[in-house]
Amino acid sequence: MASIAWSSTSSGLIFNKSKETSARINGASMFEYNGLRAVETKQFEAKGFVSTSAVRYKRIKAMAAPTVPAPKRETDPKKRIVITGMGLVSVFGNDIDTFYNKLLYGVSGITPIDRFDASEYSVRFGGQIRDFSSKGYIDGKNDRRLDDCWRYCLVAGKRALDDASLGKEVLDAMDKTRIGVLVGSGMGGISVFSSGVEALVQKGYKKITPFFIPYSITNMGSALLAIDTGLMGPNYSISTACATANYCFFSAANHIRRGDADIMVAGGTEAAVTATGVGGFIACRALSQRNDDPHQASRPWDKNRDGFVIGEGAGVLIMESLEHALKRGANIIAEYLGGAVTCDAHHMTDPRSDGLGVSSCIVKSLEDAGVAPEEVNYINAHATSTLAGDLAEVSAIKKVFKDTSEIKMNGTKSMIGHGLGAAGGLEAIATIKAINTGWLHPTLNQHDLEPEVTIDTVPNVKKQHEVNVAISNSFGFGGHNSVIVLAPYKP
């Protein structure tokens, strides 16, 4: 029997089927938790008064449920944001199509580490980039000095600009004060930083390179890309661990919506497959130790997962106001509908077990996008392959999306590892390619799925799927949550 109750701390009516669903979750009402609409919007007539045994509820006269208006998407072409270019550096190379084709065919990019001597490490494998070339994008002198983090950023950023038909001649004819750069990194120039500390300890401060500070700090990716291209709009970086790239997309979009810029070059970059980076994550006990079978190591939602696999790379999008993109005749490949960022406020490394921070972030992203939960049919999950994180994310997803029968969800990290600050950038590109191609890449190593995971994870083999609306999740140490909403562009 349905009950109707008014909470003095809630912002509206709550329609519940049981006492269990009427319970408040962590101090928030179910109306607040579900965000977009009441639990049920079915209209009915009730006679007299209906009360509950809970002291905090007041008795009120029963009324028909209000009609919940459909979410409204942005229609102003100055505030609608489209994607007009993509660029990346990945374990599968620097070409977008090659990257996605490898994902579609379930190729694992996880290999033994040989960049440094890892023979004594308890973890000796990762998503290490090999045979990287910056030819045509960075001059030789700078290339030798730069940390790989910034090399990846410059190549991915310039490739994205080229993909958007924003080469040097085109940019030189544009108002560069209206084009900004927002490429973040979770750890920055860790190789340069480690080398500087080593020089200090072994040889003294006079042997520290003058590039130690500039090439270590996390803002330098955006700065160097702007210096090379002359882009004078909003320029900074965000560092929120593994949530970094989505934070950058969210903030870049808001700069365009506010009128600060017409175009934003946004994404994430990381190069932490180093002695310090790997050693640090081993100390956190965060990494898989499946040294005897690296290809099987990253296994999101599988019962036998034992931690994430460290990866690296860069993923950059060109985000542009629809008005500006149409005016210059740009090729529009997708639309950014909205996004959100929240904090678990719980623990440095562990997610909230109830998933509240994640579910509220998803709800806020849908509200920002003007999208109802029923419209979403694809999720590129954070899915790192950690024991707690994988199930917390699924729990949060199931709280927001009551019916997941039409949703497909996959984990890009199962093939390329966890790119840390770059992860959201690489996964945004994978999401856009899914939108464009109608094919979802598989989640590898799905052999013994956790029973709580009742959503189709696209196990081991690609699937054809027409994406209506997609969300891409990224979460980071510190409890940082970020979600972006992407969809096919429709004029």
TrEMBL record:
GO annotation terms (biological process): fatty acid biosynthetic process
Record GO terms (molecular function): 3-oxoacyl-[acyl-carrier-protein] synthase activity
InterPro entries referenced in this protein's UniProt entry, alphabetically: 3-oxoacyl-ACP_synth-2 (IPR017568), Beta-ketoacyl_synthase (IPR000794), Ketoacyl_synth_AS (IPR018201), Ketoacyl_synth_C (IPR014031), Ketoacyl_synth_N (IPR014030), PKS_Beta-ketoAc_synthase_dom (IPR020841), Thiolase-like (IPR016039)
GO annotations of cellular component type: chloroplast; mitochondrion
Reactions mediated catalytically: a fatty acyl-[ACP] + malonyl-[ACP] + H(+) = a 3-oxoacyl-[ACP] + holo-[ACP] + CO2
Subcellular location: Plastid, Chloroplast
PROSITE patterns: KS3_1 (PS00606), KS3_2 (PS52004)
Keywords, in A-Z order: Acyltransferase, Chloroplast, Fatty acid biosynthesis, Fatty acid metabolism, Lipid biosynthesis, Lipid metabolism, Plastid, Transferase, Transit peptide
Top-tier EC class: transferase
SMART domains reported for this sequence: PKS_KS
Pfam families (alphabetical): ketoacyl-synt (PF00109), Ketoacyl-synt_C (PF02801)
Enzyme Commission number(s) from the entry: 2.3.1.41
Domain Ketosynthase family 3 (KS3) span(s) in chain numbering: 78-488
The UniProt record lists the keyword Transferase: yes
Secreted among keywords: no
Subunit structure: Homodimer.
Family: Belongs to the thiolase-like superfamily. Beta-ketoacyl-ACP synthases family.
Function: Catalyzes the condensation reaction of fatty acid synthesis by the addition to an acyl acceptor of two carbons from malonyl-ACP.
Name assigned to this protein: 3-oxoacyl-[acyl-carrier-protein] synthase I, chloroplastic
Species this chain originates from: Perilla frutescens var. hirtella
